[in-house]
Structure formats: structure tokens, C-alpha cells
Amino acid sequence: xxxxxLAVVSAGASDPSSTRMLADRLAQRVTATxxxxxxxxxxxxxDLRELATEITAALVSRHQGEKLRRAxxxxxxxxGIVVSTPVxxxxxxxxxxxxxxxxxxxxxxxxxxxxAATAGTARHSLVVDEQLRSLFAYLRALTVPTSVFAAPEDxxxxxxxxxxxxxxxxxxxxxxxxxxxxxxxESWQTYQHEFGSAGxxxxxxxxxxxxxxxxxxxxxxxxxxxxxxxAVASSAWTPDAR
Length: 242
Hints:
Strands 1, 2, 3, 4, 5, 6 and 7 form a 7-stranded mixed beta sheet that branches. The protein is an alpha/beta fold. A hairpin with a 2-residue loop joins strand 3 and strand 4 (91-92). Helix 1 (18-36) packs across helix 6 (158-177) and helix 2 (52-61) packs across helix 4 (94-101). The protein is globular and about 65 Å long. The chain contains 9 helices and 7 strands.
């Protein structure tokens, strides 16, 4: 029996939160759908409200606290992801976008994602498709065809239940396909990775060059061309004369 790892990201700011409840409903549907198809699901919930301080610190210092590192590890190890955000001022939660902006841009390549949002009015329904899909397209994740949006009047509507079921079914099918795993196992090297984001698979960077030694705190005088490089480095900065 296959066990799928599902990461559920909720950006709800209140307690209780309609955004968190929507995320939980999606997780339940995914678990039930996978169960009917002979799979178990291990669910990890990432409540961004509890990580707000560490997310802010990571934005300004690039340092990740312990809780944030665990959340990132859960995303990296997930077979499928559910993301749910409230809508503020016609946009996705800043807490949610900040969280995904601090991630390694290679972390979610090919991973299947359900995108969902809640708002006080149906006028914000396009935020899911206009903003969340583009965010995950940049991260090269694979959003399922069905997005989910819920205004207050939708919470008990049968139409919402059908969309939840459809999105869950699509996510399970994508997890079953093994697409993300195959991409990483068989074609990872074909992607243009940023330095430091390819898990040590970079092959075109000379880590022993003078400039790389300077960048990591070493001395450029360790090789014959070191004096020239050191001169360039020292002349590249001049005090502000204003």
C-alpha cells in the first residue's frame, strides 16, 4: 500500500479560521479519495500564522528558524500540496506570498498543488486563478485544473462540495502518476538551477576560482592571479563622497 505525504499550507490569520477549515476539508477529501483507491495519506499541516515571526526574519536575513525549517522540509518531502489563503484587498495574503518567496525556487518543481482561497465576497474569486496559479507557475509546480474558492455563502453549498471532490481527485491522480518523482529522478539535470538550489548537482561553477574564494572569505593570493583579482575587488568599492 502506497503512503502519500500531503502538506497542507494555511495562511488563515484568525482562530477559528475559514481558510484553515477550507484547507482541512480539502485534506479530508484527498485522504478519502486516496483511501478508496487503496492508498494511505500522511498529512502535515503548516499553519503560517504560527510561523509569522520566523517568516519575517527569513525575509530580511535569509535565516530560517527551526519551525520554518521543519515546514520547508515537509514541503520538500511532500507528494502533494494543498494551499489555502484568505484574500485581502483583492490579493492573496502577504503572509502566504512571503512564505513562498523565501523558499528555494527549485523546492517544488513538478509537485502537484491544489490552490484555494476564501474571501468575504465572491468578487474576489478570480484571485485564485490570477495570482496563485502564477505564483506556482514561477515555482514550476503543477496546479491541478480545479481551483477552489469559498465566500461565506458558499460554505454549505453543494457546488463547493463538488469542487472539493474534483480537486482532490485530480491531486490523487497526479500523485499516483509519479510525475514529480520521475522529473527529479530522470530529468533534474535538464533544469536551469540557481546556484545553491540544485542540491549539489551544479557542474559548471568553478568553486576554486579566485573570485569564489573571495566570496567565501578566503584569500585571492592563493593563486598566481590573486594579486590582480584582489586589486579589482578592492577598487570595486569607493566611499560615498557626498
